[in-house]
Design brief:
heterodimer; A: alpha+beta; five-stranded antiparallel beta sheet; 7 helices; 5 strands; B: alpha+beta; four-stranded antiparallel beta sheet; 6 helices; 62% helix; 19% strand; elongated
């Protein structure tokens, strides 16, 4: 201790130190303050700001995941499986041409129209839904004859089928005095392959909303009016992929 | 009588005392500043440590909830498939089918005495129509319906008479080209 005191005394006797003795402590203090500011306070305040925003984002993510968990816990698997079956009637995962033709034939008979010709062709019509799933489509060409009212009924009923179909083109020619008209129609029928990717775990989900429930109810009611014509069963024999193998 | 006071302290001593006082104040202020800065630094560091701990806890909570969600993968898949399919259904349903609307509209506007001979609708909503009638008044009603927005719900934009023939017997045949506005255009024009 004495040694330090002596050293300090000796130092204080050095003329330049003796001259600026009063300024040494304040200057050292300011220097240390600047060091603290540059190397501790500013960098760590920046880190705190960043961490704070991460904490905020994490909180939001947690809330969103918590909502997702609540929605998932409320899902009744059996009810959803039934609903999927119903929704698959409207837009099946495969073309199911026999099912679509059956439905059209049923409609034609129900509307008292006579079938003159029927055929199908592929269509380029594709539209992506909100989750990116693409609706694919093909066209069924129908030649039919009957009364104007029967055609009107058919056009009206085509909107009320479990399998969604849309009238694409319509040409009508009429018999002059017979009251019978001939119509040739092209009807677009949709299908959509099942999704292969259900997305990220952090992707928020929503439960069935009112619009979804209304659509499901509509499909169910249309299905009741048209029993056993729409088939989503795809366990049918398939041809060879490459006939030369 | 007032006492006379004489300051015998040398001026140098007084100056030295003042200087020492100033030095003391300066030293105290420096130490105070240093203490304040050290206090702020430790406060910042301790807050950062607290925040880090809180962050790690939140991340752990997040991981836990992710694990819980992963356990409900079946429900998530079912919900995704159903919502995806219903989105597709809604997308198709909301598409405007101008053909069926055009046919329904024209047949509604056409009186019973007018016979429809040929009818075709293009994708852009243009209708080609051929018909005949024996009644001039029925044809008048039909043409009025086509031009009256109240009767045609404002959907008929333009009607072109391509051909109009009347025979001596009074039999009238006609060909029309009717331009219809789409539902979307109609809604847009209303707003």
């Amino acid at each position: 201790m004495n040694r330090i005191k002596n050293t300090l005394k000796q130092l204080s006797e050095i003329p330049i130190i003796a001259k600026y003795n009063a300024l040494i402590l304040p200057l050292t203090s300011v220097f240390i303050c600047i060091l603290l500011l540059i190397f501790i306070i500013i960098p760590h305040v920046l880190i705190i700001t960043k961490s704070n925003s991460i904490a905020g984002a994490n909180k939001e993510k947690f809330n969103s995941l918590n909502n997702k968990l609540t929605v998932l816990n409320a899902i009744n698997q059996n009810e959803y499986k039934e609903n999927i079956k119903t929704a698959l009637l409207a837009v099946p995962p495969e073309k199911d041409i026999p099912g679509a033709l059956n439905q059209l034939l049923f409609l034609l008979g129900n509307s008292k129209l006579e079938l003159d010709s029927i055929g199908f062709s592929s269509s380029q019509d594709q539209s992506a839904n909100k989750s990116g799933g693409k609706n694919e489509a093909y066209q069924i060409k129908v030649g039919t004859s009957g009364s104007v009212q029967a055609l009107k009924d058919f056009i009206l009923n085509i909107k009320k089928t479990p399998r969604i179909m849309q009238l694409d083109t319509l040409e009508v020619t009429g018999g002059k005095n017979t009251g019978t008209i001939q119509a040739s129609m092209s009807i677009t029928t949709y299908f959509q392959p099942p999704p292969t990717n259900i997305g990220d775990i952090e992707q928020p989900i929503s439960s069935l909303n009112d619009a979804d429930k209304i659509v499901l109810t509509q499909i169910k009611s249309y299905q009741q009016n048209m029993p056993a014509v729409a088939s989503t069963e795809t366990n049918v024999a398939r041809g060879k992929v490459d006939p030369f193998q | 009588m007032d006492k006379i006071s004489i300051n015998l302290i040398p001026i140098q001593l007084e100056t030295l005392k003042k200087e020492q006082t100033r030095k003391k104040i300066l030293n105290r202020a420096s130490i105070f500043l240093l203490v304040i800065m050290i206090g702020i630094s430790s406060l910042v560091l301790s807050f950062e440590i607290f925040l880090r701990l809180s962050l790690s806890k939140t991340e752990q909570d997040l991981q836990n909830i992710k694990n819980q969600i992963a356990d409900l993968k079946d429900q998530e898949t079912l919900n995704f498939i159903l919502k995806d399919r219903l989105a597709s259904v809604l997308l198709i349903i909301n598409k405007d089918s101008s053909q069926s609307q055009a046919y329904n509209l024209i047949t509604t506007l056409m009186p019973n005495d007018v016979n429809l001979l040929a009818f075709s609708v293009k994708k852009n909503g243009q209708v080609s129509l051929s018909g005949d009638t024996n009644s001039v008044s029925a044809l008048n009603i039909f043409f009025n319906n086509l031009t009256d927005p109240a009767s045609n719900e404002g959907r008929v934009v333009d009607t072109k008479v391509e051909n109009l023939n009347q025979s001596q017997s009074g039999h009238i045949s006609f060909d029309l080209l009717i331009s219809l506005s789409s539902e979307q255009n109609k809604k847009a024009s209303k707003t």
